[in-house]
Structure formats: structure tokens, C-alpha cells
Amino acid sequence: MKIGFIGLGNMGGGMAANLARVGHEVRAFDVSKDALARAKDKGCTPCTSVKEAVADAQIVVTMLPNGKIVDEVYSNEIIGHAPRSSTFIDCSTIDVDTARKVARDAAKRGGYEMVDAPVSGGIAAANAGTLTFMVGGTPSAFDHAQPVLAAMGKAVIHAGTSGAGQAAKICNNMILGATMIATCEAFVMAQKLGLDPKVFYDISSKASGQSWSMTSYCPVPGVGPQSPADDEYRGGFATNLMLKDLLLAMQAAEQVNAAVPMGARAAELYQAFADLDQGQVDFSGIIKMLEASGDA
Ligand code: NAD
User: Fold this and answer.
1) How does pLDDT run across 201-232, given as a tens digit for each residue?
2) Pairing between strand 25-29 and 153-160?
3) How close is the Cα of 8 to the center of ligand 1, in Å?
């Protein structure tokens, strides 16, 4: 299949490479020359512009930093430039409103089908082809996108109509942000109360305090399966990306009048952690801020 792939950064680079590996003709573009050169090494055909990359694409995939860029790239360089029969897949994490607006524009200005398909899983999953995609769009758009997404992931789930993929993503990550902080503060307090962290893990991971943040991504080093805590909170999912998702969740909550007191507090605490120049640190590293603020 002919695929135009735009945005070859930390995530898109691995995703485009996986599409090329299974035999798709991937015509790729990124404003970064380095990213473009890496994609070429991994079997993609480098293009000099978005318009060139999408000119005969059957599928267009975008993996871009934010909603403003997604809107600009689709409005100015994809809609009207890709063949009318092509299907658009935006895998970036962006706000629900922009996802819906871009899909509406694509339909109105060219009759294109489009899905929002944000991912769960980080850079390692993008490279390994084990992402989970949450997809919003019509059943027909989903059917066209599904085989392409399946080549980049382990699960492709149809969440509902346009914007539903982004809604699922930010609601899921709001749970993740809040449970990670709750898990961190419980470990810090347990230790201050004289409990060994391993013993507390053994108890709570089998009791009602259990969550993914505890048993798959424990924020305490040497406890539970390997996680960024065991590597000084390097790698994993950066605090800046968690903060981005929480701020998107807060924006959506305000628009639909949803009460999100825990999500709001999680956003404040991740903002405070990022303000300490810790934005590149894995999001479970927030345990260090909680330890330090208790001792202050
Ligand atoms: P990144 O910054 O590494 O990659 C984005 C790429 O887009 C860059 O290479 C940049 O040069 C390119 N770009 C920017 N403007 C462009 C334009 N106008 N035309 C063409 N290319 C352009 O970011 P990333 O970590 O790959 O994340 C991409 C998206 O995936 C974001 O929306 C992010 O929130 C989401 N996401 C990231 C992770 C993660 O762990 N990194 C996990 C889940 C979701």
C-alpha cells in the first residue's frame, strides 16, 4: 500500500519503519533533516515536502507534536493535495475539538475519511510495533485504517465517532497521572511509618491498593518488575508528556463540565514537578518531589 507518513520523531520514526518493514511503500516527510535521514535508513522514501509525500498516498499517517501543528499541516498541505480516495490517520495526541475539526474539514473540503488514532505505549512500543491504538471515526474509516494500524501495534480498538480516540486517551492518562501520584505518596508515607518498601509492595500489590502504576511501573527502585525507577527515572514516559495529556484532559473537562478534582490536582503537581526542571524525567520520578516536600 502507498502510505504518506508525516512526523518521524521519537514515535513516528519507529512507526514508519515498521510499515516499511512489512512491505508498504512509505513516502516520508519531517521538517528535521536528521529524522528524515534515519527514516531513509529504515526503508522509507524521503520526500522534500508534505505535499510530495501524500501526492499518491492511499493512506496518510501523521505523528506530530500538537493540535496546532496537526491543524496547519492538514489544512495547508494534506487536504486537497492527497488523492480524494485516501484515508487520513492522525496518531498524535491532541485536543478532542481539534481532532473533530480537522476530520470535518477533511470531509467537507475533499470527501476524505479520517480517524483520530492516538497511542498508548512509548518509544520502545513504537519501535517494537506493540502500540495500542484508540480510534475515533466512522466504521468505514476505521475499516480502512485498521490494517495499517495493526502493522504498528498489538491492539487497535474502535472507541467511537470522531474524537473518541482522543477522549479515551486523555481519560486513560488522567487515571494514570492520579494513580501514579497516589502510589508515590503511599510508598513515601509507608517508609516513614517504618515499612520496608518491598513488604509494602507485596501487600498492596495483592490488596485493594493495586494498580498498573504499582505493579507494572513501580516508582520505587528495586521493587516490582523493572521500571524507569530502576534506571534513575530515565527513559519511560517524560513528565512533560504526562503534563501535556493532563492539560488536554483539563481543557476537555471544562468544555463538558466534568468534575475532575483528582485530575486537576495531578495536573498541578506535575506542573510543579516540571517547573523544577524535571520535565524530561520519567513521570514516576515525581516521587522524589513528594519525598523532598515532606522533609522540607
Ligand atoms: P517528537 O517531537 O519526537 O516528534 C514530532 C516530529 O514532528 C518531529 O520530528 C518534528 O520535527 C516533526 N514536525 C513538527 N512539525 C512538523 C511539520 N510541520 N511537518 C513535518 N514534521 C513536523 O514527538 P514524539 O515523542 O514522537 O510524539 C509525537 C506525538 O505522539 C505527540 O503528539 C505525543 O504527545 C504523542 N505521544 C508520545 C509518546 C512518547 O512516549 N514520546 C507516547 C504517546 C504519545
Assistant:
1) 999 999 999 999 999 999 999 999 999 999 99
2) unpaired
3) 7
Alpha carbon 55 to its chain centroid, in Å, reads: 27
Give the pLDDT of residue 243.
98
Alpha carbon 34 to chain centroid, angstroms: 22
pLDDT value at position 122? Answer: 86
- Could you give the domains of the chain? 2-161 (3.40.50.720), 167-295 (1.10.1040.10)
Helix (H) or strand (E) holding 132: strand 131-136
3-class secondary-structure state, position 135: strand
- 73 pocket-lining for ligand 1 (C-beta < 6 Å): yes
Cβ of 35 below 6 Å from ligand 1: yes
Amino acid present at 125? A
Please write the tens of the pLDDT for every residue from 81-100. Answer: 999 999 999 999 999 999 99
| Alpha-helical regions (H) of the chain | 12-21, 33-41, 50-54, 67-73, 96-110, 123-128, 139-150, 164-192, 197-204, 212-215, 239-256, 261-273, 286-295
DSSP-derived 3-state class of residue 153: strand
* pLDDT band, very low/low/confident/very high, at 147 (cuts 50, 70, 90): very high
**Is the CB–ligand 1 distance for residue 11 below 6 Å?**
yes
C-alpha to C-alpha distances, 158 to 112, 134, 228, nearest whole angstrom = 19, 6, 30
Nearest CA to ligand 1 atom 29: 92
